[in-house]
Automatic annotation (TrEMBL), chain A:
Protein name: Taurine transport system permease protein
Main location: membrane
One annotated GO biological process: alkanesulfonate transmembrane transport
Family annotation (InterPro entries): MetI-like, MetI-like_sf
Protein location: Cell membrane
Topological category with respect to the lipid bilayer: Multi-pass membrane protein
Keyword Transmembrane part of the UniProt annotation: yes
Domain ABC transmembrane type-1: start-end pairs: 227-407
UniProt cross-references to Pfam families, sorted A to Z: BPD_transp_1
Purpose of the protein: Probably part of an ABC transporter complex. Probably responsible for the translocation of the substrate across the membrane.
Membrane spanning residue stretches: 47-65, 231-251, 271-287, 294-312, 346-367, 388-410
Species of provenance: Litoreibacter halocynthiae
From TrEMBL, chain B:
Stated family: Belongs to the ABC transporter superfamily.
Name of the protein: Taurine transport system ATP-binding protein
Keywords: ATP-binding, Cell inner membrane, Cell membrane, Membrane, Nucleotide-binding, Translocase, Transport
Domain of life: Bacteria
Length: 421, 268
C-alpha cells in the first residue's frame, strides 16, 4: 500500500515537474500546434521524460525496499533491526517484585550468532540473553533461570515498566514483546519496511547472479545453453508450423473443398490455448525435444493458417481481375499477386505466433524439461533462489521483446507497402 | 471477322432472399477495330455488369460475346482492363507494373524494355519509373494503369470509370491523354463513366443505357472525340452541338432517375 502510494506520488509529481521544466521549451512542429488532442490519437505522443522517470522509479522502488547498495542509504526504506537490543521485565512473586534485563542479539542469517554474555545480576530475577536471526522471532522463558520461577507462582507483570498480561504485548524501541497465554515472552525484532531477499532480492544481487551464472552455468548447462534451447525450440516449432500453416491457409483461401474441410478443425483449434495441450503432448511425445516442438508447432499452426487465409481473402479482387486480363495464368497470379498481397497479413500472424510460441515454450519448460529458460526459473524457485527466478524472468522478457523488434524490422524491410494501399 | 460482337446478352441471377435480378436484357452491339465508345447510364443500369461480361469475369445467362470471331470464355490478354483504382501491384515499382503483361508472357527485358520505356514516356512517368506505387498521386497511378494495359498490346481496352476518383483538373488532363493514346494506338476502347461531359468528349459512339432491366436506350455518334485529339477540350466544348447534346442526354437520364424513384416509392 505504501509502495503504491509512493508510486502514484512520483507519477503525479513527475507530471507537474516535467510540465514546469519543459513549459518554456515547447516544440513548434505541426502536431504540437493541434488544439484538439483529447480524442485525436495521432496527437498523443509518448512523453519520453515520463518513460525515463517510469523506469527509474521502478528501479528506485526496487532498490529502496530491498536496501540496495546501488542507491544512497537515505533513500532506503526503514530496514529490519539488527544489532543488540535490551529490555527489562518485572516479575511479581507474592508481592515481591524484581527486575531483570533481556539482551537480544539480532543478527544476519550468516552473521555472528553468539548469544551475548551477561552478568546474572542481583535479586531473584536473573538477566537473560538471546540471539535471533533477522526477520525471525523467538520464544524466551525469561524466568527459567530466575530463583523464583513460574512453578513458584512468580508472574511477569511488566516489560520496560509497561504492564503486560498473558495475550498482551509491549512495543520496545527495537522489538515487539508479546506474552503467550502461558506467560512465555515472544520477542519479534522489528522487520522494517524492506522486503526479505527471499521475496525480492536487491537489483545488484540479481545482476551478480547473472554474471555468476553466465560464467559458471546452472545445472550442468551454461546460461546460453538454457536460453539457446528455448529459442531453438521456438524457432523450429514456429518454422514447421509456418511451413504447414501457410500453405494450408492458402488452400483454404483458394478452394471451396479445403475451406469446407478445414474450417471446423481450424476454428475449433484456434481458441484452444496451447498450454491446455501440454499434458496431452507429454503423454504422446514425452518431455523431450519432440514433445516441445510438437507443442510449438501446434501453437503456431492455427495462427499462421488463419493469417494466410485472411491474407488471401484480403486481396482486392480488382488486382486479380487486372492480372487475369493482363494474361497471367493461375500459377502466375498465385506467385505475383496472391502471395505478395498476403505478406503483410502473414507477418502480422508471424509476430503473434512468435509471441505465443515464446510464452508456450516457457510454460512447457516449467512443467518438465532438462534445459531451458523456464526450467531454470522453476528449479531456482524450488530452491528459493529468488534472484535466479527474477534474472530468468528478465531474460525471458528481453528475448521476447527482441524477437518482436526483429520481426517488426523484417516487416518494414520486406513489406514496405503495408498499410499504404 | 474482326472486332468485338456482343450478341443478345441477358443476365439474370437469383438473390439469397429468393427474388431475382434482371441485370441486362437483350444487349446487342458491334464494335469495329479502333472504335471509341463511351457508355453512360444511371446507377443500376448494368453498365459495369456488361463490361465484366465483355472482360470475361462474368458469364452471361444468354447470348454470347465474340472477339475476332471466337467466343469469349474468360479473361484474356486480348481484352485489357483499366479499373477505377486499387488494381496496381504495390509490391512492384512503376516500371515493373507496366512490364507485368509482357513478363507474364515470358518475354525478356530485351524484348519488352524499349516498349515499356516508350510507354512510360508517353504517359509522362519516365522520371518516376523506379518509384513505389504508394508514392504516386491518384492521377499518376491511373497513368501507370493505362501504360500497363497498353504494354500488353490488347485489341480492346475496357475502362471502368478510370477517371472517376480523380479531381477535376487532373481528370481533364487525363481525358486528353486517353484521346491521344486512342489515336496513336488505334485500339478499340469501351469506356464506362458517370460523367455526361466525359462520355461526350471520349466517345465517337455514345451509348445511353436504361435500368431495370439494363438495356440500350439510345446510341449517338458524335464528332467531339475526333476534334479533341488535336484541340483543347475546352475548345471542343464550345462546339454548337455540344451543349445541345449534353442537355438532351442529361434530361434523358433525369427522366430515368425519376422513374426509378417513382417505382421505389410505389413499391415502398
Amino acid at each position: 500500500m505504501t509502495i503504491l502510494a509512493i508510486y502514484v506520488a512520483i507519477f503525479i509529481g513527475g507530471f507537474f515537474a516535467v510540465k514546469y521544466i519543459t513549459a518554456s521549451a515547447r516544440p513548434n512542429d505541426y502536431t504540437s500546434l493541434k488544439t484538439v488532442t483529447f480524442g485525436d490519437e495521432s496527437a498523443v505522443r509518448p512523453n519520453r521524460a515520463a518513460s525515463v522517470i517510469s523506469i527509474v522509479t521502478i528501479f528506485l522502488l526496487w532498490g529502496s525496499f530491498t536496501g540496495s547498495s546501488l542507491i544512497p542509504s537515505f533513500l532506503h526504506a526503514p530496514a529490519a533491526f539488527t544489532g543488540t537490543g535490551v529490555f527489562t521485565y518485572t516479575v511479581d512473586a507474592d508481592g515481591k517484585t524484581d527486575e531483570g534485563t533481556v539482551t537480544v542479539n539480532v543478527h544476519e542469517a550468516d552473521g555472528d550468532a553468539a548469544v551475548p554474555a551477561v552478568a546474572p545480576g542481583d535479586g531473584f530475577a536473573k538477566n537473560d540473553s538471546v540471539s535471533i536471526v533477522k526477520y525471525r522471532s523467538k520464544l524466551l522463558r525469561v524466568d527459567a533461570n530466575d530463583e523464583l520461577g513460574r512453578g513458584d507462582g512468580a508472574l511477569i507483570v511488566a516489560v520496560n515498566g509497561k504492564p503486560i498480561a498473558p495475550g498482551g504485548e509491549v512495543m520496545t524501541d527495537f522489538a515487539r514483546v508479546a506474552m503467550t497465554p502461558k506467560g512465555t515472552l515472544n520477542i519479534e525484532p522489528k522487520t522494517g519496511w524492506q522486503m526479505q531477499p527471499l521475496y525480492l532480492p536487491p537489483p545488484e544481487k540479481v545482476a551478480s547472479r547473472l554474471v555468476e551464472i553466465s560464467n559458471t552455468g546452472f545445472r550442468n548447462s551454461t546460461l546460453w545453453e538454457h536460453l539457446g534451447y528455448s529459442l531453438f525450440r521456438v524457432i523450429v516449432g514456429f518454422l514447421i508450423g509456418a511451413a504447414v500453416g501457410i500453405p494450408l491457409g492458402y488452400a483454404m483461401g483458394l478452394s471451396n473443398w479445403f475451406r469446407g474441410w478445414f474450417d471446423p478443425v481450424v476454428e475449433f483449434m484456434r481458441p484452444v490455448p496451447p498450454l491446455a495441450l501440454i499434458p496431452l503432448v507429454i503423454i504422446w511425445a514425452g518431455i523431450g525435444e519432440v514433445g516441445k516442438i510438437v507443442l510449438l508447432f501446434l501453437a503456431a499452426l492455427w495462427i499462421m493458417a488463419i493469417a494466410a487465409r485472411s491474407g488471401v481473402s484480403g486481396v482486392n479482387i480488382t488486382k486479380v481481375h487486372a492480372a487475369y486480363s493482363l494474361g497471367a495464368s493461375k500459377w502466375q497470379i498465385m506467385r505475383h499477386v496472391i502471395i505478395p498481397n498476403s505478406l503483410p497479413e502473414i507477418f502480422t500472424g508471424a509476430r503473434v505466433a512468435m509471441g505465443v510460441c515464446w510464452g508456450t515454450v516457457v510454460a512447457a519448460e516449467l512443467v518438465a524439461a532438462e534445459k531451458g529458460a523456464g526450467m531454470m526459473i522453476m528449479v531456482a524457485s524450488k530452491f528459493q533462489n529468488t534472484d535466479i527466478v527474477l534474472m530468468g524472468i528478465i531474460l525471458i522478457g528481453v528475448i521476447g521483446f527482441s524477437i518482436d523488434v526483429l520481426m517488426r524490422w523484417a516487416e518494414r524491410l520486406l513489406v514496405p507497402w503495408k498499410g499504404r494501399s | 471477322m474482326s472486332g468485338l460482337t456482343i450478341e443478345n446478352i441477358s443476365m439474370r441471377f437469383d438473390l439469397p432472399n429468393g427474388g431475382s435480378v434482371q441485370a441486362l436484357k437483350d444487349v446487342t452491339l458491334e464494335l469495329k477495330p479502333g472504335e471509341l465508345m463511351s457508355v453512360l447510364g444511371p446507377s443500376g443500369c448494368g453498365k459495369t455488369t456488361l463490361l465484366n461480361i465483355v472482360a470475361g469475369f462474368l458469364a452471361p445467362t444468354e447470348g454470347r460475346i465474340a472477339m475476332n470471331g471466337h467466343t469469349v470464355q474468360g479473361p484474356d490478354a486480348e481484352r485489357g482492363m483499366v479499373f477505377q483504382q486499387g488494381a496496381l501491384f504495390e509490391w512492384m515499382s512503376v516500371r515493373e507494373n507496366v512490364a507485368f503483361g509482357p513478363r507474364m508472357k515470358g518475354e525478356r527485358e530485351a524484348q519488352y524494355g524499349a516498349n515499356v520505356d516508350h510507354l512510360l514516356d508517353v504517359v509522362g512517368l519516365q522520371d518516376f519509373k523506379e518509384k513505389a506505387i504508394y508514392e504516386l498521386s491518384g492521377g499518376m497511378q491511373q497513368r501507370v494503369a493505362l501504360a500497363r494495359c497498353l504494354a500488353n498490346d490488347p485489341d480492346v481496352i475496357l475502362m471502368d470509370e478510370p477517371l472517376g476518383a480523380l479531381d477535376a483538373l487532373t481528370r481533364e488532363k487525363m481525358q486528353s491523354l486517353v484521346l491521344k493514346l486512342w489515336k496513336e494506338t488505334g485500339k478499340t476502347i469501351i469506356l464506362i463513366t458517370h460523367s455526361v461531359e466525359e462520355a461526350l468528349l471520349l466517345g465517337e459512339r455514345l451509348l445511353v443505357m436504361a435500368p431495370r432491366p439494363g438495356r440500350i436506350h439510345k446510341e449517338y455518334r458524335l464528332p467531339f472525340a475526333d476534334l479533341g485529339v488535336d484541340q483543347d477540350l475546352r475548345e471542343v466544348k464550345k462546339h454548337p452541338d455540344y451543349a445541345k447534346t449534353r442537355e438532351e442526354i442529361l434530361a434523358m437520364i433525369w427522366d430515368m432517375e425519376e422513374e426509378i424513384m417513382g417505382r421505389t416509392e410505389e413499391s415502398a
